[in-house]
Amino acid sequence: MRKKDCYNVMAVYALTAWSGRDQFAGMLEEISNRRNWRLHTTRPGQFFSKRELVDEKGNGFDGFIISMPGTDSAMEAIARSDTPTVLVNIADRRLAARAKSVSTVWTDNADVGRRGAEHLLKCGGYRTAGFVHAVGMPFYSTERMAAFRQTMKRNKHKTVVLPDGGDLRAWVRELQKPAAVMAASDIRAADVIIACRQEGISVPNQVAVVGVDNDVAQHERCGMSISSVVVDFRAMGVAAIRELDFLFRHPNFRGRLRETLVPAKRVFAGESSMRSTATVRIAENALRIIGENLTSRISPTEIAKRIGCSRQFADRCLSAVCGKPLHKAIEDARLEEVRRRIEDGATVREIAKSMHFTSANHLYRVYKRHFGSSISQARTS
């Protein structure tokens, strides 16, 4: 395409959603610097058909910016042409296969996942991490999950992923607390918060949650502000104009599909992840002391004394973060250690003596009451 005095550009956008409006605003901001561009717009889907491939005078467009696909016939016609085309956050295999004048602009979903993980890691210590996909597990959800999991793994946290279509309430109930959960969108983050409320799980003390999009409507739906990775939709609109300008200035550009990744803008810190640092610190100290004294019969009062607070306050802090008071945390930790030693082949008598249980019979009774099955059953399972 030779340099022209005026370029006719068709932009395909849905403006009902705020994300589309933000993208469009960025595009208008950047196109204002190009006085020789004439902008035409249409809605996606059935509204963008082959009839919209020409302007009101019957002339073809010099370039397309497509944020949502049109009809199959329209997309096929564009793919068969050499008209400079920019795809924004969508994939089209026919256009991707075209060797000339095609560019793509994408949200950097890996950056989104990383930022979600880093935000949660700054909010305090966790026993586990979790990720909740968007419904149907679209590609962007998978990309965000992979980066989130990798960041958590580097910080020695295993990530538990809710299976597509899985029972969300059962999933949050079974998570080891305290847990750090990222959802692929604020819609799913609100679902997580509602599920926690239904299960009597405290957000953010027991489960801290971060979403994506900073969608205020979802904040209202779940009754609290959701910490959220803010996608820079406006920057995507700016990038789309710049990519089309590049294609206009390089009419013979061929080769590998051009790709621009737009990183996340920031993280909005809402109520869903803002844990009290004092509460978290006391709970973490209590768990550390319990872990250091698994073989002794340390009391809740002694633990509170070592931390430097009252028994009642230590109980409240541990209950807020882990969902259990001191005496239950001690019992759980000691009996998990018993189970580990049984699996390693130690005898009940040896365990009872080294861990200061009253007797072997006492350990048998406590074990069965706690796990609902006997030590003999544990050995044969």
Mean pLDDT: 91
How much strand?
Answer: 5-15%
Number of helices: 16
Write out the CATH superfamily name of the largest domain. Response regulator
Oligomer state of the chains in this structure = single chain
List the uncertain runs. Answer: none
Could you tell me the number of beta strands?
12
Q: What profile does the largest beta sheet have?
A: 6 strands, parallel
In the CATH hierarchy, the third-tier topology of the largest domain is known as: Rossmann fold
Quote the distance from N terminus to C terminus.
73 Å
Question: What coarse outline follows from CA principal-axis ratios?
Answer: elongated
Order of helices and strands: EHEEHEHEHEHEHEHEHEHEEHHHHHHH
Q: What is Rg?
A: 28 Å
The CATH level-2 architecture of the largest domain is identified as 3-Layer(aba) Sandwich
Describe this structure as you would to a colleague.
With 381 residues, the chain is α/β, with parallel strands linked by helices. It has three domains: 135 residues, Response regulator (Rossmann fold, 3-Layer(aba) Sandwich); 122 residues, Response regulator (Rossmann fold, 3-Layer(aba) Sandwich); 104 residues, Orthogonal Bundle (Arc Repressor Mutant, subunit A), CATH 1.10.10.60. Helix content is 47%, strand content 15%. It has 16 helices and twelve strands. Strands 2-1-3-4-5-11 form a six-stranded parallel beta sheet, covered by helices on one side. Strands 7-6-8-9-10-12 form a six-stranded mixed beta sheet, with helices on both faces. β4, α3 and β5 form a beta-alpha-beta unit. The chain is elongated. The protein starts with 6 loop residues before the first strand and ends with a helix.
